Every structure is written in structure tokens, then in C-alpha cells.
Amino acid sequence: MMEEEETAHVETYWCDQLSTQLCRLCANSDYCMLPIFEGDGVEQEIEMKIHKYLPIEVSKKDAVAIHICYSCSSTLNAWHLLYQNALVADEKLKKMVSRICKKQGGESESTSDTTEPRKQTKDEPETITDGKDILSSGSRYD
């Protein structure tokens, strides 16, 4: 009977150690852990970020660790910021492309610049504006 009580005590000890001193994400031990379900963990929305970005389930009732180390917290928060910034950038770029396409598609032939380009003199430095300059035969200074 004494041996069973001792085994139960050891198991309880290790369960407590597991849930409070090991990171739920990397399983490493750290002297400074962030609780997932209280305090800073709640303020930083750690539970939501884990559910959103990682293929694991966390719960207050977990028998496994309910803390994460600051390294994993930092990585998770950085990933969340990258995710949010990518969504904003995607929307911004799509609007820019849409605006440019509308502007180009909305111009009629009569409103576009139809004047002949000015010919370059021999004293001006040579600039290439498109590939046609390189491929054309004859002198550019005709």
C-alpha cells in the first residue's frame, strides 16, 4: 500500500512539473513561463493564436503543459503579426492593381499621347527606353 501511495505522489509531482514548467509548444523547460489561460497569456491571446496557427489543441483541462516559454510566445506573436501584415499588404496590392487596370482600361485612344517622340541629338547621352532601340537597324541619329 505504501508503494502505491508513493507512486501516486511521484506521478502527481511529475504532472505538476509537466503542466507548469514545460512549454506546451516546444516541451522545453524555462525559468520564465507564460500561462496560456491567465494573465499575460490571455492579454496576448495565446490560446487563440495556438488554435489559429498550430495543429494542436490546448485546453484549460489539458493534462499536459498549460504554459509556453517566452521564446515560443515571441515566435507565435511574430507569426501573428506577419499574418496580419500579409493580409493588409494583399488587400493594398490588389487595390493598387485594380486602380491601375481601371486607369489603363478607361483611357480611350483619343486621350492618349499621340505626339511623335523627340529625336535624340548626337550631343545627348544615349538612353534606352525599350528593346526596340537596340534591335532597330540603322543609326539612332537619322
From TrEMBL:
Superkingdom of source: Eukaryota
GO cellular component: nucleus
InterPro entries documented for this protein: Znf_AD
Domain ZAD, residue spans: 21-96
Compositional bias of kind Basic and acidic residues: 115-133
Start and end residues of each stretch annotated as Disordered: 101-142
Keyword Zinc among record annotations: yes
GO MF annotation list: zinc ion binding
PROSITE patterns to which the protein is assigned, alphabetical: ZAD
Annotated positions binding Zn(2+): 23, 26, 69, 72
Keywords: Metal-binding, Zinc, Zinc-finger
Keyword Zinc: yes
Pfam families cross-referenced by the UniProt entry: zf-AD
Record protein name field: ZAD domain-containing protein
Organism listed in the record: Timema poppense
